[in-house]
Structure formats: C-alpha cells, structure tokens
Amino acid sequence: MKLYVLDTGVVGFAQQRHPIYQKHLQNLPSGTPVVTSIITVGEDLSGWLPACKRAINGAARVKAYARLQRGQEFYQRMGYLPFDDTAAVIFDQ
Fold first, then answer.
1. Cα 21 from Cα 26, distance rounded (Å)
2. pTM
3. pLDDT tens-digit map of 53-68
4. Facing residues of 21 across strands?
C-alpha cells in the first residue's frame, strides 16, 4: 500500500477542503494513509504564532488563536511523519 505524504502547499488545500484536493482524496483506495511531515506542521503553525503575538486587540487575538487551534487539530487528525535521525541524514545529503 502506498503512503501519501502531502507537502506544505497541498496541506493548505486540504485544510480548505479545496474541491480538487477532495476529488483526489476520494479517488484513493479505501484506507490509503495520507499524512504530512512535522516540517510542514512547523512551517504552518510557526506562521500563526507571530500572528497571535502581534494581534492588536481581543477580536484579532481570538481570530489568530482560533486559526492556530484549527491547524493543531487538523494535524492531530491527519497525522505526520517525524523528523528523526534517518530524515536528518537524508536531509543533510
């Protein structure tokens, strides 16, 4: 069985439930694992942390933290691959 690993750009479409992404997902065989990497998680969520800190008022802060939480919940449901020793060796090459 194949494992599908989504990069940062495609994860954005997945989070937005983009119709083209949804169609591709529906065409995968049942039970096909679709994950991303901890690198993508870091890239995505690290963009929202500064937004939380620079929010100018309570309403902006609520919006920023809600987006951060939705992202965190999305990655928990999707699952992600770790950046482990093997990944580090490949990355360094």
1. 9
2. 0.76
3. 999 999 999 999 999 9
4. none
Residue 11: Cβ within 10 Å count: 22
Beta bridge partners of 5: 35
Identify whether the C-beta of residue 5 lies closer than 8 Å to the C-beta of residue 81. yes
Q: What is the rounded end-to-end Cα distance, in angstroms, of the chain? A: 27
Instruction: Please identify which residue in the block is written with the tokens 């069985």.
Output: 1
Token pair of 55, please? 């929010």
Number of neighbours of residue 56 by Cβ within 10 angstroms: 7
Q: Token digits for 49?
A: 């942390």
Q: For residue 11, what are the contacts with CB-CB under 8 A and spacing of at least 6?
A: 36, 40, 44, 78
- Compute the residue count for the chain: 93
Residue-wise DSSP of 2-47: --EE--HHHHHHHHTT-HHHHHHHHHSPTT--EEEEHHHHHHHHHH
3-class DSSP assignment, residue 85: helix
Count the neighbouring beta carbons within 10 Å of the beta carbon of residue 88: 10
